[in-house]
Amino acid sequence: xxxxxxxxxxxxxxxxxxxxxxxxxxxxxxxxxxxxxxxxxxxxxxxxxxxxxxxxxxxxxxxxxxxxxxxxxxxxxxxxxxxxxxxxxxxxxxxxxxxxxxxxxxxxxxxxxxxxxxxxxxxxxxxxxxxxxxxxxxxxxxxxxxxxxxxxxxxxxxxxxxxxxxxxxxxxxxxxxxxxxxxxxxxxxxxxxxxxxxxxxxxxxxxxxxxxxxxxxxxxxxxxxxxxxxxxxxxxxxxxxxxxxxxxxxxxxxxxxxxxxxxxxxxxxxxxxxxxxxxxxxxxxxxxxxxxxxxxxxxxxxxxxxxxxxxxxxxxxxxxxxxxxxxxxxxxxxxxxxxxxxxxxxxxxxxxxxxxxxxxxxxxxxxxxxxxxxxxxxxxxxxxxxxxxxxxxxxxxxxxxx
Length: 402
Ligand code: FHN
Prior knowledge:
Helices cover 28% and strands 20% of the residues. The chain has two domains: 305 residues, TIM Barrel; 82 residues, Golgi alpha-mannosidase II (Immunoglobulin-like), CATH 2.60.40. By secondary structure, it is an alpha/beta fold. It is built from twelve helices and 17 strands. The strands form four sheets. An eight-stranded parallel sheet has the order 7-6-5-4-1-10-9-8. Strands 11-12-17-14 form a four-stranded antiparallel sheet. The structure holds ligand FHN. Its EC number is 3.2.1.51. Keywords: Glycosidase, Hydrolase, Signal.
């Protein structure tokens, strides 16, 4: 079982993942060919020569990016508690001022500004935790970085680790204030000793910086589930699920398969009730803005999250029983059970609950509700909450049982 021993991570529940890099310029299409896979993989999947891919940097000028607005919205409108941005994805391009490689946003683009610095200042202003994604094994730009499903023979991976990966991680940890976590990903081929080198480096600079479950060889500080994978039962310990709103991470102009707000709310609550954190991704465009449809969905989810924050943040996982009531998700903390009503109904019926009830009320308004309890035997019973007429046609509200 993984235990971060960090309360902020256990309480956080909902974070923002940002996949942003040069792939956002291609937006799923290169020279008229569409990629049928996730957009940030286009260089690898369409075999774009490194020299050609590098030239994309000359076009990267995200003048629509406003870190202040971004972070403010993530916190206040979407209700998220931490942000993890791709400092360097598999393409090898650094979204910050790196002295280690000129293939970075400050040196190689007309934009010329350090995106991570902008994000850091905004996160500090709004008191939002900031973490960085860093692709530690795959680097399609470096001659010694790994590539997926390509010939990696003859590469000196240790040289890449020593000359690019570790020096860049050092930069990230030394120049951008407190980093809540480094989100290492796809640790293909990395040995136990090399994983330990990364861990030692991170902890020697920022001992409190957490390492994702994909650091390598199960040596991270918490568990990372598969992408978009929600377990049916709670996992023990600390864990997080990386997830998409559509079907890609980086921006893809063809992918309009946006999940509905109700679906995201239900996923979030399932994850929270099972004890995990939901790290939900947006893929900004090359201009630095989030697609409108994605914003609409996250705004709607954000209304639920901010109105019912008590029933989400700082809650602790419930037992197995909780997960099988259609249209209802349950979350809880000591002495409080939160019943999230996600489809219309006339009453809430909870079986196999023998606890005494002190009160039932709508969490967002405080409106008291009629309830009855039935004791079957010592330690077992049932609770019924009759919903008033006006609530019976409604969904997406939360009832607190004390
Ligand atoms: O290959 C990456 C992918 O591009 C994306 O970053 C996701 C996020 O979890 N991780 C890898 C695939 O699992």
